[in-house]
Structures are given as C-alpha cells and as structure tokens.
Write a structure and sequence with these properties.
The complex is a heterodimer of chains A (583) and B (176). Chain A has 583 residues and is of the alpha/beta class. Chain A contains 13 helices and 16 strands. Chain A starts with a helix and ends with a helix. Chain B is an alpha/beta fold and 176 residues long. Chain B has a single domain, classed as Rossmann fold. Classes of the chains: A alpha/beta (583), B alpha/beta (176).
C-alpha cells in the first residue's frame, strides 16, 4: 500500500501527459488540414475569378489585357504566381515572384496541388461552353514563422496543460510525503501519549499506595499507645471479674465492679470500632458528619497516640457543627494534624484542638456563609516562610526518609476542598503552627444520635423474639437479657434451625447474627422474609456496614453493632417492635 | 492550297497569340483573325429584347466588299453566340429590314461604309468596319502586329446594344 501509492501518481500523470500530447497533435493536424483546405478554397476561388475575367482577353488573344489581369493578383500577398494558358497550352500571361519555384511552361503541366507549404489551383477559361484556356494560381510559400504562429496557440495550451499535470503530480507527491510525515508524527505522538498515560497510571497507583501507607502509618503510630491502653482496659475487666467471682455475695461490690468492668469494655469497644473503621474505609463517602462526635471519639484515641510529653486541650464551640465530609478522612486529618503537632514539639508542649462556628464574608477563596472552623494549634518549632509556602504540596515533607510520606497536610487540604471549604496554615519559626480547616456547615443538621439521650421505651410485653447466632455466649446473653426484659426468647444456633422454629411458632421479631457459617444472616433473613414479608429484623454484627447490609437486603435494615450492652439491646428491640406495630 | 492550309491552321490557332505572326506574314491571315473576332464579338453584346427569336440563328451579314471569302463560313462552323447558331449572309446593301444582327461593312459603290452605317444607325445591328464612320460600333485596328479593335460606345447606345464591360476593357484607342 505505501509502496504502491507513490507509484500510481506518476504513472497516471504520464498517461495524462501522453493523452494531452496526442490530443494536441490531433488538434494541430486537424487545424493544419482545415487551414490547407480553406487556403485551397480561396486559391480556387481566385483562379475561377481570374478565369472569368480573363475570358475576353483569351478569346481575342489580348496578351496585354491578360497580363494586366494577372498582374492585379500580385497585390495579393497570398499569391506568389499566376499564369494564363491558351487552348493549346501556351502561356499568354505569367506572373512570377523572383526566386520562387518556376512556373509550368505548358498549360498541361499546370495541375492543382494541395498541402505542403505552397498550394496551386487551376481553373478552365470557358467561352460559349467550351474550354479555351486555363488559369493557374499558386499560393505564396508560407514562411516557417507563419506555421509556428498558426499553431502557437494550441501548442501553448498543450504545454500549459502538460505543465499543470506535471505540477499537480509534484504537488501530489509533496502532499503524500507530508501525509506520511504527519502520520509518522501522529504515531510518535500517540506513542508518547501512551507512555505518558502509563506514567500517569503508575503515578496514580503509587499515590493510592502512598495514601494507604499514610493511613497505615497513622494507625501504626496509634497502635503503640492503643495497645498499652487496651492492656489497661483488659486489666480493669479482668480485675473486675476476679473481684466479682471472689465476692459473689457482696452485692455492693459486685455492682460497683461490674459497672467498672462494663465501662472498660465499652471504651475498648469504641477503640476497636475506631481502628476497624480506619482500616476498612477505602472509598470516600461524603455525608453529614457531626464534628463534635468526631472530636469526642478522638478524645479517646489521641492521649495515647500523642504520648505524655504533649498536653492536649479541646475547645469545642457551641451550636450545630455538622459538615458534609467523609467521616473517616476527617478523623484521619485531625489525627494527622495532632501527630504533626507532636512531631513539631520534641520537648513537649501544648496541642489545642478547637472548633467554632464562624461567619465568613469577603473571603477571596470562599463564598460568604457560616463555616465551621476546625483548627489544631501547637507550640512547637514552627515553620520558616519557604516551608510554609509548600506545606500543602503533596509529598512535601521535612521529615526524614521513612518517617513521613509528605501526604499529611496535602490530605488535610484535599479533604477541606472536598467538603467545599479550605485549609490554612499560620506559622512562624519558633512560634508554633496552627492549621485551620474552614468547612461549610451542612444545610440540614442530621438528627442527633446520642444513644443515652433516647429513653428506653416500654417493653412490648410477651413479644416473641427469635435469636439466631452461632456464638453460644452471645446467644445465651441475648436470650437471658430479653427474658429479663419480659420478652419470650426463641434461640436457634444456625439459619436452618432458625427457619424451622419460624415455621413452628409465631415470631414478632428476628435478631440475626450477620456473619454465620453455612447460611449467612442475609440469606436467612431473605428466606424468612419470603414467608413473613413484614417481619422486623435486627442484624447484629461487629463487621458489617449498614450500607452493605442495605445493599444485600435490598431495603433499609437495622444494624446492632457488637459489642452491645443490655440497655442498647432493650432500646433497639423496643424501637423495632413499636415501628412494626405502627407500620 | 497552301494558302487555304495556312488559313485553316490560323483559324485553329485563333485562341492563341496567333495574330502576332499571322498579321505580319500575310494579309489573308489578318482576315482569318478578323473573321474569328467577328462572331466572337456577339458573345459580349446584348441585343434589345424582342429583336430576334431566342433560338433563331444569329445573322452575320457581309455588306459590300467581302475580304473573308469562305474563311468566315469555316470560322463560324459549329460556333454559337450565347447558345444560338450562326448564319452568314452576303448583301450588297443593308437596311434596317435586312434582318442582320452583326454586319461587317465592307463598302461598295452601291453603298459606302458611311451610307451603310447611316442606314442602320438606330437599328439593333452590331456594325463592324475597317474605318471609322459615324454609326460604326466596332472598328478593327492594327496595333503592332496584332489585330485589335475600337468600340464606339455612343454608336452602340444609338443601336440599343449593350456591350459587356469585359469587351470594353479590350477596346483600344483608334488614333494611337
């Protein structure tokens, strides 16, 4: 294809040029013939006119008159020679141009001639219907210049046409060459682009990995403190159970230590929930987040994470503090800021986490409105101007290799921008640093989820509750608690036996463990709903996300997160039963 | 016999520059040429309408002295004037009623050339003579060795004859 393309052009144009040349020659020959024919016609007419006028001169043998008539033709530049012959063929009168071809000496030799550079015509002189003589007229010899002139027009047109063909061919060749070059350039560009795309993808993968690493780094930094804290919690629980088992009769002691043990377990539960949330959250989920709740959770984690050298203070402002953000990311951001603050104070100092609602107006970066100011301030070494200018750049870090990813502040800035706000940094060398996130407040504050704030509803007396859980301890605890609350508990160790129980007895509510061997909670629930579509269900799980459950069941579900205490259980059961009664 | 033979050759050669040789060598050759001219004048002359029947022979009359003899009769043999045959008559005197179309006025004691010319002054007769007299349309003239002629246009008009311009072009001045 590429070799055939440049060949086709010249061959075609060569044929075109040959065709033009042939056409030009044909036209030239035709023109020449037309010219000869018309010249012969003119000559013939002249001969006839001369024959007619010379008739009396021949009749009366008047050579003088005949010469006069023939001489009149000399005025015509187209005629080079003329002669009049009598009936016997003897010349009566002759006109000859000097140097021209000699005239025929006898009338019989005077014959018409056509074509060539000179033509000749013969006409008879008649008198009373008889030929009495003959007239001979010869045309002037055409100068070569006249021939050239006659064909110059066609020749010029022909040359122009051939020139155009040749030029067009050259242009085509040039175009083809340009097209080849541009194709080559395009291919080069495409390759470059592909390489660039590859690099971008590689970089994106690397960034993703780095973000994950950053998260894990943060978790790692937390882990030491948390493990220590967790040991303390376990110590408290273990100690409480030990004292209770040793003094079962001392009601006052049992009550006090069981309360202490519960509190310790609750704290531990909150910490593990937090760690799970951190490690599990992969995709961003922008939704209404109560910043005060976030701060409250961080209060549990931060003291252990930051160590004893740092004095941590919280200044939480009044009013609704709900923003649109990814909750996990926001928590991580504050966590990061606190860790950065700690790292900026190797000899200890103060870290202040504060929130407040502020009014923003005339800000170059933000539209006017009410924002939540969330800031973390330290009393550390601070930052010089050049570091401060680049602090929000991704991968910019002043920490040594292996100490930090440089994504911390960039992530803080990214989260703030995602939430529709911004992040700012105030610092000077030796004067500490304050990182401030300005986040627009969510338009509709979500309903507060303070668990203790909801009063425990009255137990729906005598309601039958089917509890399906493969863990004997959990199942026994739930059943005993429910019985104590005045419900009737039906226990099943797996989905299959649960379905059998459901078939045998009327059930008002299901409490199902989500993660079970064999039939999962979701499968069991689906089977149960097939026979009882309006049956209320509470899922109990330490892992599952409520969204994942909703997606699995195809409808909003109620999730009871493990570990839970009997009070939370009582509230959720009462809610589910009353909702079913209303529905 | 030799004279007749030479005359015959002369007649055959009338289309050529025969006159040059003929006139110089022998007087009778001159008349052979004149005899040939006599009927040929008719081809270049138009007679008035109705003067003669279209198919009737053209009458050539020799009035008075006859210098041609049988030469004239031979010369006109097989010849035509505007498609009409030719008849030769010999008269002693001419009158408008003679029925002549072309008349060679030879002159005689009975009727001189002048008298003959006067007689047919206004008649449609092409008069030809050796001398110039009023009414003679064509006068034979010798120019060098050649026989030429002079045409009197006034006389032609008087006779209501139209002479072709082709013939007029060959007319020579009689005085020169």
């Amino acid at each position: 294809m590429t070799s055939a393309l440049p060949l086709r052009g010249p061959v075609a144009s060569m044929w075109g040029a040959i065709a033009l040349l042939i056409a030009g020659l044909v036209i030239g020959v035709f023109n020449e013939r037309t010219f000869q024919a018309s010249r012969a016609q003119v000559l013939q007419a002249q001969a006839r006119v001369l024959a007619a006028t010379v008739e009396p001169a021949v009749v009366f043998a008047d050579a003088i008159a005949a010469r006069e008539l023939v001489g009149a033709l000399a005025a015509d530049p187209q005629v080079s020679a003329a002669a009049v012959y009598d009936g016997r063929g003897a010349p009566i009168a002759m006109l000859e141009t000097p140097g021209a071809q000699p005239m025929p000496r006898r009338g019989a030799d005077a014959v018409p001639r056509q074509g060539g550079r000179s033509a000749a015509a013969v006409a008879p002189v008649t008198h009373e219907g008889r030929e009495i003589g003959r007239v001979y007229v010869r045309s002037a010899v055409q100068p070569p210049l006249a021939v050239v002139q006659r064909h110059a027009g066609v020749a010029l047109l022909l040359l122009t046409a051939i020139l155009i063909v040749v030029l067009a061919q050259a242009a085509q060749a040039e175009q083809a060459r340009a097209a080849r070059e541009s194709r080559a350039r395009a291919a080069e560009l495409a390759e470059l682009n592909a390489r660039l795309q590859q690099q971008i993808e590689r970089r994106e993968t690397a960034e993703e990995a780095l973000r994950q690493a950053q998260k894990m780094e943060t978790l790692g930094q937390l882990t030491g403190g948390i493990a220590h804290d967790f040991n303390n919690l376990l110590q408290t629980v273990q100690g409480a159970l030990d004292i209770i088992s040793r003094n079962p009769g001392d009601a006052e002691r049992v009550a006090r230590w069981s309360r202490l043990g519960q509190e310790a377990a609750q704290r531990g539960a909150r910490v593990t929930a937090q760690l799970l949330a951190f490690s599990r959250a992969q995709k961003l989920e922008i939704r209404a987040v109560d910043v005060r709740a976030v701060i409250a959770r961080l209060r549990e984690l931060l003291p252990n994470a930051l160590g004893t050298a740092v004095s941590l203070h919280f200044e939480v402002g009044d009013g609704e503090q709900t923003v649109m953000a990814d909750e996990t990311q926001l928590e991580l951001a504050v966590l990061n800021l606190c860790i950065n603050a700690r790292d900026a104070m190797p000899n200890g100092g103060d870290v202040v986490v504060s929130t407040a609602r502020i009014s923003v107006e005339g800000d170059p970066e933000l539209p006017a409105g009410t924002y939540l100011r969330l800031s973390v301030a330290d009393t550390g070494v601070g930052m010089p101007q050049d570091v401060r200018a680049r602090a929000f750049d991704p991968f910019f870090t002043t920490k040594g290799v292996g100490k930090g990813t440089g994504l911390g502040l960039a992530q803080v800035y990214g989260i703030a921008r995602q939430a529709g706000g911004t992040a700012r940094l105030e610092s000077a060398t030796g004067q500490g640093a304050t990182v401030t996130m300005l986040l627009p407040l969510a338009p509709d504050a979500p309903r507060a989820e303070g668990e203790a704030a909801v009063p425990t509803p009255e137990a729906v007396a005598g309601a039958r509750i089917l509890v399906v859980d493969d863990d004997d301890g959990v199942r026994t605890f739930v059943c005993e608690a429910l019985t104590a609350m005045g419900y009737r508990c039906i226990a099943a160790r797996d989905g299959q036996s649960g379905l059998e129980q459901l078939a045998e007895e009327p059930v008002d509510l299901l409490i199902v463990d989500y993660a079970m061997p064999g039939m999962t909670g979701a499968e069991f629930a689906a089977a149960a709903l097939a026979t009882r579509p309006d049956l209320p269900i509470i899922f109990a799980s330490g892992y599952a996300e409520s969204e994942a459950l909703d997606a699995a069941m195809g409808r909003p579900t109620s999730l009871l997160r493990k570990p839970f205490d009997s009070q939370t259980l009582a509230r959720r059961v009462a809610e589910a039963l009353s909702a079913a009664a209303v529905g | 016999m030799t004279v007749i033979g030479r005359l015959a050759i002369a007649v055959a050669a009338t289309f050529a520059g025969l006159a040059e040789r003929a006139a110089g060598e022998e007087g009778s050759l001159e008349y052979a040429v004149k005899a040939a001219f006599l009927h040929r004048f008719g081809s270049f002359v138009s007679w008035p309408e109705g003067s003669a029947a279209p198919r009737a022979p053209v009458q050539i009359c020799v009035v008075g002295r006859d210098p041609f003899g049988p030469t004239l009769d031979r010369a006109v043999q097989g010849q035509t004037i505007n498609g009409r045959p030719i008849a030769v008559r010999r008269l002693s005197v001419i009158s408008p009623g003679s029925g002549c179309d072309i008349a060679y006025l030879g002159g005689s004691p009975a009727q001189s050339v002048a008298a003959a010319a006067r007689a047919v002054l206004t008649a449609p007769v092409l008069t030809v003579a050796e001398v110039h007299e009023p009414g003679v349309v064509i006068q034979f003239v010798l120019r060098g060795n050649r026989v030429r002629f002079h045409i009197d246009r006034r006389a032609a008009e008087q006779s209501r004859l139209t002479v072709s311009s082709k013939l007029l072009n060959l007319s020579v001045d009689p005085g020169a």
